[in-house]
Design goal:
This protein is of the alpha+beta class and 593 residues long. 36% of the residues lie in helices and 18% in strands. It is built from 20 helices and 20 strands.
Length: 593
């Protein structure tokens, strides 16, 4: 319902055969480029703010370009990019000697971007490129990541004498990794000289012996955050590395023709016509490296930490066409059946079941399956329709809210007025703005006896700092409800004590959890309803949230739940959450405690 910007998407392809092989077998040397396009389009859900692609041509002679990059902004960025990089060899024939069109290569990398806590603009769209006259020192980098300790890394770089041009985790990561790549090349230069090599023989030795594992180990140890970092070097190294907590996802596949990697498994399945079992998941702290020779290396870059794979991937972000995600979302819906039955006093005969389009549909099927298993006949209607997107050029508050109220519409006559309950499920309730400004208002026009608003995820109580755009506590309706309850009950000392703890001990413990401690889930639910209920609404509302236990039962392999519990997997996440509370007290409540 409330669309969240979130972690980006990555796609990588390494062709293991000459371009002429793909021309002969598939009718075009653009085989890799076409597959990259498909993989990016299949992950369009992960980034509609911008996109970029990179390419390395291993066969380009000196004096000709061998490393290409193209970027664009906007929801149509993928289409725009691939139009630009179309070239005059329209018959698809293989490039000949002296005829090297752009993006004819063996290594391809694509990125889809959603900015979260960072800045927007074409200069912030991945991939980022670091140029050098030595092939092996050229680095093209992209990633699905958000680093929580960029201040510390920036200080580390500047203490070495470096001066990054832009302050941002993407550029700083590029500069740090580029610096370590320079050191790796210099190591090989000295080794080649020690073997008596000279001139281009030294260059060839370097290009064929780069150890990206050395570069990654000396780079990634400095970072705290959730990431899948991907890159290409001018000498032909391709790599991807996953954070040691496994927060962000990555999947890969290899055969004798290609090595591919993407943020989501079904993307690879669909693009290459594979089964789920054919595809491997990159493990926490692990890298996938494809060397210039085509040799594939899996290397543990950092020790794996306690698994904290993002549960929001399963609830909302990833494509529901993944076999396991589909079943997990159904279970999330089914597990809510007892609470829903209690909310409607088991009166299924006078209840209509529906969902908020479109990402809650699978959980809806699980919910209705759960009711059927109670030997109940289920009445299903498509009550809500999503019509339009709010046009952002409307900036005045009242006009904008009026437009927002019409983003959704209803099916009139879909229930019996004043007799039927309406149970309607969504995947999550984050800020509550769309409920207040649109959903509750239009549902009330149907005159239901009662509205039971169901969330297949638990209450979202804490910000995310690993790639999702919910970084401010005051935006979360559960947090606002808890603060309101504190004020209602005269417990303001809890705010003061939490503030002082966040100031004095910011990195070892999440003190914001104390804000919720005095209240039950049900008490917060009732306060959320009170705050989100529009003026003049007639139908009573009850909220039903997924439990933490239900979440982990449905998604046992993705225990990362910090948005719900406050248990951040890294010190950086704890520090930023405590800092967000300090900012809230000082800048929103305007208190100096």
């Amino acid at each position: 319902m409330e669309q969240l910007k979130h972690e980006c998407g990555v796609a990588m392809i390494r062709l293991l055969k000459p371009l002429s092989y793909y021309e002969q077998k598939y009718g075009t040397w653009r085989y890799g480029l076409n597959k990259l396009y498909l993989m990016m389009e299949k992950q369009h859900n992960r980034g509609q703010e911008g996109a970029g692609v990179g390419c390395v041509n291993l066969n380009a002679p000196a004096g000709e370009e061998y490393m290409f990059r193209e970027k664009a902004e906007g929801k149509d960025a993928i289409t725009e990019i691939f139009k630009r990089i179309s070239h005059p060899l329209a018959d698809g024939s293989s490039p000949q000697t002296g005829e090297q069109p752009a993006f004819a290569g063996q290594l391809y990398m694509g990125h889809l971007r959603y900015s979260t806590t960072g800045k927007s603009g074409l200069q912030y769209v991945h991939p980022f490129l670091r140029r050098n006259n030595w092939r092996a020192k050229n680095l093209c980098l992209c990633g699905n990541f958000n680093m929580t300790n960029i201040d510390e890394v920036f200080s580390f770089l500047t203490a070495q004498g470096q001066s990054p041009r832009i302050y941002g985790d993407s550029y700083i990561t590029l500069e740090l990794m580029g610096h370590r790549l320079d050191r790796e090349v210099e190591r090989l230069f000295q080794k080649a000289q020690g073997q008596g090599l000279q001139g281009t023989d030294i260059t060839d030795y370097i290009d064929n012996h780069v150890e990206m594992g050395n570069v990654l180990k000396t780079t990634m140890k400095h970072f705290d955050g959730g990431y899948v970092m991907c890159g290409l070097t001018g000498s032909g190294e391709m790599f991807a590395v996953r954070d040691p907590w496994g927060i962000r996802p990555a999947f890969w596949y290899q055969d004798d023709e290609v090595v591919v990697l993407a943020s989501e498994r079904p993307v690879i399945q669909t693009t290459f016509d594979l089964q789920a079992e054919d595809i491997k998941e990159l493990k926490p702290g692990q890298s996938l490296i494809v060397r210039k020779s085509g040799e594939i290396v899996q290397q543990q870059i950092m020790p794996a930490r306690q698994l904290s794979a993002c549960s929001f991937e399963r609830i909302y972000f990833s494509r529901g066409s993944d076999r396991d995600i589909y079943l997990e979302r159904k279970r999330l819906g089914e597990q809510l059946t007892p609470a829903i039955m209690q909310a409607i006093d088991s009166d299924v005969a006078h209840t209509v079941f529906s969902y908020i389009p479109n990402t809650a549909e699978v959980a809806f099927h699980g919910m209705t399956d759960g009711v059927r298993r109670l030997n109940q006949e289920v009445r299903i209607e498509k009550v809500v329709w999503k019509d339009i997107k709010l046009r952002t050029f409307i900036t005045e508050g009242n006009e904008r809210n009026d437009l927002a109220a019409h983003v959704y519409d209803i099916t009139y006559g879909s229930l019996v007025p004043y007799e039927d309950n309406l149970v309607i499920i969504d995947d999550s309730i984050v800020r509550g703005t769309t409920l207040r400004e649109s959903i509750f208002k239009i549902l009330d026009r149907l005159h239901p006896k009662k509205i039971v608003m169901v969330s297949s995820s638990p209450q979202i109580r804490y910000p995310d700092y690993y790639g999702i755009d919910m970084s401010r506590l005051e935006e979360l309706c559960a947090f606002r409800a808890a603060i309101a309850l504190i004020k209602d009950r005269g417990l303001e000392q809890v705010i003061a004590e939490t503030y002082r703890a966040c100031k004095t001990e910011p990195t070892t413990k999440n003190h914001v959890r104390a804000i919720y401690a005095p209240f039950t889930v049900e008490e917060i639910n009732r306060k959320i309803v009170e705050m989100l209920r529009p003026d003049g609404m007639q139908a009573p509302i009850e909220l039903v949230y997924q439990s933490i236990e239900g979440l982990h039962e449905a998604c046992p392999n993705h225990p990362g739940d910090w948005y719900f519990t406050g248990h951040y997997p890294t010190n950086g996440g704890i520090r930023l959450c405590n800092g967000a509370f300090v900012n809230y007290v000082e800048n929103v409540l305007n208190l100096q405690l």
